[in-house]
Amino acid sequence: MIYAGVVIFMAFIFISSGATTLSMASGKESPNAALISSIIHRRDGSTMASPALMFLSTAHASESSFASEDTLNTSPQATEKLDVVASVSPITNIIKNIGGDRIELTGLVPEGVNSHTFELVPSDVIKVINADLVIINGLGLESNLEDAALEAQSKYPKLQILKLAENTITPAQWLFDFSFPKEKGDPNPHLWLNVAYAMKFANLTRDKLSEMDPQNAGYYSENTERYISLLKKLDEGILQAVQTVPPQNRKLLTYHDSWAYFATRYNMTVVGAVQPSDFGEPTPRELVRLIDQIKSERIPAIFASEVFPTQVVNQIAKESGAKIVETLSDDVLPGNPEEPRHSYIGMMLENMESMLTPLGGNITSLTDIDPRDTSH
Ligand SMILES: [Zn+2]
After folding, report:
1. pLDDT at 48
2. What mean pLDDT do residues 245-253 have?
3. More confident position, 30 or 35
4. CA-closest candidate to residue 90, choices 376, 307, 265
5. Is 42 exposed, middle or buried (0-12, 13-18, 19+ CB in 10 A)?
6. Which fold, 227-366?
7. How far, in Å, CA of 255 to CA of 276, rounded?
8. What spacing in Å lies between the alpha carbon of 124 and ligand 1's midpoint?
9. Which of 116, 129, 153, 340 is the most exposed place for a label (fewest CB within 10 A)?
10. Three-state SS sequence of 175-225
11. Strand order across the 160-163 sheet
12. pLDDT tens digits for 187-209?
């Protein structure tokens, strides 16, 4: 993340030093916006001074995914398949199950990177500019990607943006909580951990792909039907599995506050989150409060994840006597891309094992579910 920030900042300096296209003097443009508009300008066939592009090719020479200067000339409609750019891995995987091999799909947020603070590198910006469709969760989750997509769309109105969360629930259904307090404005954005909402994500994706690519509408529709029937099994299996947890243990205290919509769907209660709303570290006072809460509510386990630091969670566990589980995941898929479990469904199945077993439940209602992708 720091690296990405440095990259953007350096690009800013390179561009501003050689720019013929930017108006930096106002100081109103963010480095990201400056980078985006400079790359967009270049795609228009203008004669922008080269430092920015020199920077791109040197900074990313080692990246196999680097989009070369040639790719800047691709028009959004030039390729036969729809070019779709998405954000976090679980959402990208849901889209993959609908679009199958009839779309060209790229997920931009690398696994293991904090999606809330993810920043685009220049090659990401090029992918956004060349996309036909950008699909994001929205509700403030991927604000840098959203800004880039809007900036690109202002130049290329054919580029479409689909915000899944905004189209799945109304503002009245937004949840504000520990790390996403109402006074900060953005609600908790983690809708996809509620499988009923994931089904809506699948349907919204089908509708948008079918609208933009009507020739393949039948294909998208069949894929969606197959995928939704598996998601229904997953949803019902989770509902049953949670019922096996003793009622007094159906409490979630996590490091990262991502289970709000899951909890309302599956009758659990999020009793707290360790991570403050600025995604920094909790203060010693907050830690003491959490430890007291765990003791007084007899919370059996607290949950961390691969993406976020566990040191502070270790400390809470040690002082409160709660068991620590470090494997809960909201945006990293398990295993490597070749493995069947490397999917949204696989992630949810592993989450249920990590979450419900230490709380005293079992997941026998989920054992028959095949996590592999269903698109043909
Ligand atoms: Zn998150």
Report:
1. 36
2. 96
3. 35
4. 307
5. buried
6. Rossmann fold (3.40.50)
7. 9
8. 20
9. 340
10. CCCCCCCHHHCCCCCCHHHCHHHHHHHHHHHHHHHHHHCHHHHHHHHHHHH
11. 103-107, 82-86, 133-136, 160-163
12. 999 999 999 999 999 999 999 99
- Averaged pLDDT for residues 27-38: 58
Token pair listed for 297:
């509510």
What is the largest distance, in Å, between two alpha-carbon atoms of the chain? 67
70 C-alpha vs ligand 1 centroid, how far in Å? 35
Compute, in angstroms, the gap from residue 115 CA to the centroid of ligand 1.
6
Query: Using one digit for the tens of pLDDT, what is the confidence trace for 353-373?
Result: 999 999 999 999 999 999 999
Q: Measured in angstroms, how far is the CA atom of residue 199 from the centroid of ligand 1? A: 19
* DSSP structure class, residue 172: G
Residue 31, pLDDT score:
53
- Whether the per-residue pLDDT at 279 is higher than 90: the answer is no
Give the sheet arrangement for strand 269-273, strand by strand. Answer: 269-273, 251-254, 301-303, 323-325
Could you tell me which of 164, 156, 132, 179 has the C-alpha nearest to residue 286?
A: 179
| Adjacent-strand bridge partners of 161 | 134
Domain range summary for the chain, segments of one domain joined by +: 1-70, 227-366
